[in-house]
Structure formats: C-alpha cells, structure tokens
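re the bet — no i am not wrong, look at it urself. input seq straight from the record:
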Amino acid sequence: MKIATLGLLAIIGASFAGTATAGVNANGYLLLHTDDSVIYTEDDEDSYCNLLEVDCPFDPECDDDHMGCSSAAMSLTPTSGLGPDETLVWVVAAFWPDACPRVTAVQFGLSWPVEAAASPIIKTGSCAPFELPTGNWPNELLEGTAVSWAPNAITRTAFPVYWFTAYSYYGPMEVALADFPTGTTGAAFADDSVPAVLDQIPDANMGSVGLNGATGSNPYMVPVPVNEKSWGEVKAIFGR
C-alpha cells in the first residue's frame, strides 16, 4: 500500500492514507482478455462491460464461494487469433477467491514495443462512470488512465475495468499492462474507506495480450483445492 498518486487522488477527490498494512484490494491482478468470436462494433459498446457478470457476481458480505469466478479468470484468453485485424481487448481486475475486494477506482497504463511506428490502440471505453486519462492517452507510451465508480465499490473478485481495440499490421506485437505514469505508486486499486487506501498492483500480477502471432500472458493462476477444508492448506503452500 502506498501514498496516493495524482491520478486516483484527482479522480476520487479524496486524501489517501499511508499505513503499514495492506488494504482490502492488496495483491490484486489486472489482466488482458480477448475473444476472437466477438468482433468490435460501435453498436455493441454498451455490452462489453457485461463480461463475467454471471461467473463473478457482487458479494458485499464476502460470504460466497468464489472458486467459479477464479476458474473464469484463469480461463481468460490473452492471445488473439485475428491476425492483423482490429481486436477487442478487455482489462479485467481479479482477486484470489478468499479476497474481499472493495474497488472504487483503478489506475494503469499500457505498453508496447518502442520501435512501433504508432500506437496500436484504436478505440477505448471505460466500464466505470468517470475516467481521467493523461494528456496523450492512449496514443503514446508512458501515458495512462484512472477510472472510478466512487462512492460505490465493486465487490466482485473479477470484473471488467476497461476495454480497447488494437491491431498490429506489420507482425507480432505484445501489448502489456503497465504502471500509471505519474507519481510513484504505478498501477493501483483504491478502496472505499475514508481516507481511501491505495493498493499497488505488483508487476508480476499484470497481464498482456498477443496480437498478430504474438503470445499474451495471463498471470492469474489459483490452485484449486480438492475440498473446502483444503483451501487453508493451499494458501499456506503458496505463501498466502
């Protein structure tokens, strides 16, 4: 957990607290997912944020079984098979099944090879009601955006944060999630406490998407226990 950067500080309009303990959104993931069967159209934009709504419902009391949601998150597809064509990509927040997230805002960036002639990003859309991008987002490297549902909190262990379309005409390209460019916190989740707590997303927990022959990465991998009683043992093995 870190002191807030300007991105989420501005978008929520609150002061963030710095404490020695992690917040409820600690150790979260930010993933990229694509589906070759879904071709982008402007008419369908309103439906893109419905991803995972059945597998990963709201759970404000934190008393549901989230293993089905975790399985869905592990099954997200990070590699496109559409060649050089425009590809729809989702940015998905995900947490372990024993987590109790309360996400009011997210900030992140995107990266791609510096030798690319131009940004591979074509269109973008937020799944939150408010967005505050940096000045040249998403047309340049070292840019980013922050999105917010505040004062409401998202209490799902996996849910879409954002979507964009991208292409790579000249060959394989990997587009990866990256740190927010200003401040020292990087990519992060904010919660609904007052003052809000900002939890940094570890670099190892951020995914990528592969375009036109490149292979993407989905780092979300939860060991599935064989029965309910084994979950604590599984967490201990993996250092949770």
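see?? Residues 127 and 162 are 5 Å apart (CA to CA). told u. also The longest strand covers residues 158-166. so pay up
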